[in-house]
TrEMBL record, chains A, B:
The protein's name in its UniProt record: Transcriptional regulator, BadM/Rrf2 family
Record-linked Pfam families: Rrf2
InterPro entries (alphabetical): TR_Rrf2-type_CS, Tscrpt_reg_Rrf2, WH-like_DNA-bd_sf, WH_DNA-bd_sf
PANTHER family in alphabetical order: HTH-TYPE TRANSCRIPTIONAL REGULATOR YWGB-RELATED, WINGED HELIX-TURN-HELIX TRANSCRIPTIONAL REGULATOR, RRF2 FAMILY
Chain segments annotated as transmembrane: none
MF term (GO), any: DNA-binding transcription factor activity
Position of the signal peptide: none
Cellular component annotations (GO), alphabetically ordered: cytosol
Length: 143, 143
DNA sequence: AGATTAAAAGACATTTTTATCCTTTTTATG
DNA sequence: CATAAAAAGGATAAAAATGTCTTTTAATCT
């Protein structure tokens, strides 16, 4: 659903949101400890975000990463899109391939469509619940 | 959130739910095409599930995998537990480490607690929304 | 201008996940 | 009892994700 890289990136941006602006840039060296992400790896992720215009940065002395006013209007999805790609996040919880919100598989209705009561569904739905009233294999495996 | 392996396993079990019982066992050879999982890999996963008593199997001629009446009462979580381990599934969407349902981080309230309106939250929540009213870094990074 | 600082970029290493192959064990059946 | 069918198990391979290191480029300060 979300790669660690995306989680790292979100944490990083969150840190920047709290600790930076145009006049107070932040070096990776100073933030990686707080967000618990390996320094070089965090640097890479932030560079990628910067390259895609999701966050801002300048090089050289007094340089670093920061969020502009505009940057702060970005959604978390904007971050995730850059790191994981949209497809990965939106993909069906079960569909390894072509199932998504537009073309949902049968399980989608249960766990996918509202991809978020997911844990509860996993715990409370038995195999029996799943298949009741259904005998057609094709219904479950559209792809 | 869910590994492909778990998705594969769920699909496999689903297939068994639809196509097997004590008297009609199913060989991996006959099911892997339908569920779109590599034969040898699916075999491994089903073996693992069988070893943990989540599904049933017998060897030899006319053998194969199947679901007993009891097996059908299992939850999807039972499957996922075996393949991914409980920790992985329950882990916080953002917490790479110790954040979970019991000790939620701040983002948890937003995306984690109801880990399922997640996509919508991602799309609709801006950085600004996230930090409004908060200036304390520690609040965001408990671990 | 020159030295220094910090991100950008890209090559390389490690680990985890996914996938395959091959041998062994079990078991039904003729 | 021999044979063949099928899962079980182990070793290995490939791919993807994660992580590190080194060099290059740009900004700043003296």
């Amino acid at each position: 659903m979300l790669s660690n890289s995306s989680k790292y990136a979100i944490k990083g941006v969150l840190y920047l949101a709290l600790n930076s602006d145009e006049d107070h840039k932040v070096m990776v060296r100073d933030m990686h400890g707080v967000v618990h992400v390996p320094e070089a790896y965090l640097a890479k992720l932030l560079q990628e975000l910067s390259r895609h215009g999701v966050i801002s940065s300048t090089r050289g002395p007094r340089g670093g990463f920061f969020l502009s006013k505009e940057d702060r209007k970005r959604s978390l999805m904007d971050i995730v899109k850059v790191i994981d790609g949209e497809k990965r996040v939106k993909s069906c919880v079960l569909g390894v391939k072509d199932c998504d919100t537009d073309q949902p598989c049968v399980l989608h209705k249960l766990v996918g469509a509202n991809k978020s009561k997911f844990i509860k569904v996993l715990e409370n739905t038995t195999i029996l619940d799943l298949i009741e009233g259904k005998r057609d294999v094709e219904e479950f495996f559209p792809v």
